[in-house]
Amino acid sequence: MRADTPGRSRPALALALTTTLLVTAFAPADAPADRAADRAGGGAAPRPVAAYDFEHPVPGDPARERDRGRSGTTLELVNGGAQSRVRDDERPGRVLRTRQVSPGTAGSDDWKAGVYGPQGVPTLGAFNGARETTVMGWFRMTADNPAPNSNTADPNDRYNAIGLAGILSGTSQGHDVRALLELITVNGEMKVVALGRRVDNGSSQTFAADADWREILPPDTWVSLAATFDFDTGTMALYRDGRPLPGRHVVAGDPWAVEGAPEPDVASPTDPRGIKIGGSYPQNTQEGNPCDCRMDDLMFFDRALTPAEIMSQYRRTRG
Ligand SMILES: [Ca+2]
């Protein structure tokens, strides 16, 4: 919920809230997962908690995007607003444009997307105590990433990470995550990774793809990426265009503290503070790890999809 809107009367606000609830309650029958189930010949295709196709602006408020998943978590198109919903020469409809603005200035104008709630976002409650999670979407690198670090004086200093999409932890300042798909420097080398944190304020684990990141995400090429997180076994996996990406867990030991009782191990019993897409700090207080990218069909599931389900989602969304 955003801050008070000047001039908006209480009845009008109540009506707006009611409309939102109605939209949430009566999810459309053509929701993505339902179509997937139809195409797969029935069966229980997983329905995402949150899903964004960037074809569904909030009526009257096009700087926000409706959730096509089951949670009704409305996304903010931060700084870019409706302008960041753009047409693409390779994918139908519209996609999300994210990018750095003013590389030399420590400001708050980068185009990104997300949602942030300082007390947690209740609609993301499916990830409260979740045993598993999947983050999935389509990504196209459109310029020279990583971007110059606008938070330091050195013009040659670049960010050590490129933000794609993820779910914030329950105590996040807008950067720390529970489950994230991104690129980050691992032992001096940029890598495509899944990065997860089971316990709020605890240590993170990183699963890094072996292949060179420029082979996984060539310039100006649409790629489907997925990351799965199993908080009970302490393991993650990555997929590119529906197929598993060979890789390895980077942190030795037990950073998620899954050894020993109690079982099973689940994520912290807190609602995530939000979602971040194309950079950190969705509340727009700071810049961090921007992505000069296009993105589409971003999905967040509260379980680890199987390899067959990942392939099915890839085929369904490849446009
Ligand atoms: Ca789209």
Automatic annotation (TrEMBL):
Signal peptide: 1-29
Sequence segments annotated as region (Disordered): 33-114
Entry keyword annotation includes Glycoprotein: no
Domain of life assignment: Bacteria
InterPro entries linked: ConA-like_dom_sf (IPR013320)
UniProt keyword list: Signal
Biased composition (Basic and acidic residues): 53-70
Coiled-coil region list: none
Name of protein: LamG-like jellyroll fold domain-containing protein
